[in-house]
Amino acid sequence: xxxxxxxxxxxxxxxxxxxxxxxxxxxxxxxxxxxxxxxxxxxxxxxxxxxxxxxxxxxxxxxxxxxxxxxxxxxxxxxxxxxxxxxxxxxxxxxxxxxxxxxxxx
Length: 106
Prior knowledge:
Elements: H1 4-22, H2 34-52, H3 58-64, H4 74-96, H5 101-104
Helix pairs in contact: 2-4
């Protein structure tokens, strides 16, 4: 019984959440601005972490013994900069979906 209790403590709320999300009405779908917020926050996280020298790669951080580096981590900065056009596209698409249909025909 002691082995089942942690499983139930984690599994029952997870199953309830899955059921709640599955039973949502279809008209309450994902808002078009969520991808824009996700891409923007991902780009900001990568740029700031890379510029500060914080290694987000757990394998490299474990091998070095610390997640901090003495230099800028350029692959993180580059990946963050590469996400910026994706974020801009998502923002443009999301903000245009908020406009009324009459303004789009102009």
